[in-house]
Structures are given as structure tokens and as C-alpha cells.
Amino acid sequence: MDSSTNEKGVEVAQLDERSDEMLRDQAIRRLKRKRDFERHLLAYVLVNAFLVAIWAVTGSGFFWPIFPIIAWGIGVAMNAWDVYRADEPDEDRIAREMESIRRRG
């Protein structure tokens, strides 16, 4: 493989390999978060369907399953936001956070 160097003397091939490795690690983390969210959503649907079934079988009075549906639904919505909408931190934010941690000791 023909490798060239950039202005700081770092081999471009090495940078490409590290970049690919970082992208792979990031992709793996995102896929795991998506899989975990899908499991969370499935549990939410199954448990709440079971609660609604219990409510229906026991007389269909006051719709009490609404409380866990709403409360747990907030958690599911926040989890979805984290998985699908939250931006990955950029290098500047990461560097600032690292500096903050160093200062605190």
C-alpha cells in the first residue's frame, strides 16, 4: 500500500485506518443502542397490553392502565430521543469535557 505523509508527518494510511476504526466503533455503539431501544419498546408494548387485558377481564371500570402507559411512555419517548435524535458530541465538546475533568482532578 502506498502511504504518504501529511504536513505533520503522520502517515495518511494510518489516519485512514484509525478513522475507519473509530467509525466502526461508533457504528457498533449506535447499533447496540438501537437494539436496546427496540427491546425496551417491545417490553413496553407487551406489558401494557397485558395490563389492558387484565383491566378488560376484570370488569372494564376505570381505565387504570393509563397510569403505567403514560409514565413508562415518557421513558420510552426519552429513550427514543436519545437513540434517534440526540447528536453525537463533536470533538470540541469532547475536548472541553476532558479539560473540565482534568481540572477537577
For this entry, give a set of tags.
105 residues; mainly alpha; elongated
What does this structure look like?
This protein has one domain (12-104). The two termini are 43 Å apart. Helix 1 packs antiparallel against helix 2 (66-84). The protein is elongated, with a radius of gyration of 23 Å. Helices cover 75% and strands 0% of the residues. The longest helix has 46 residues, at 12-57. It has 105 residues and is an all-alpha fold.
Q: What distance separates the N and C termini?
A: 43 Å
The overall strand count is 0
Rg, rounded, reads 23 Å
List low-confidence stretches.
Answer: none
Helix content: over 70%
Q: Give helix and strand order, one letter per element, not per position.
A: HHH
Report mean pLDDT, rounded to a whole number: 85
Give the DSSP E fraction (strand runs of 2 or more residues). Answer: under 5%
Largest sheet, if any? none
* Count of separate DSSP helical elements: 3
- Overall outline: elongated
Q: How many separate domains make up the residues? A: 1
State the gist of this model.
This protein has 105 residues and is mainly alpha-helical.
List the helices and strands and how they pair.
Elements: H1 12-57, H2 66-84, H3 91-104
Helix pairs in contact: 1-2
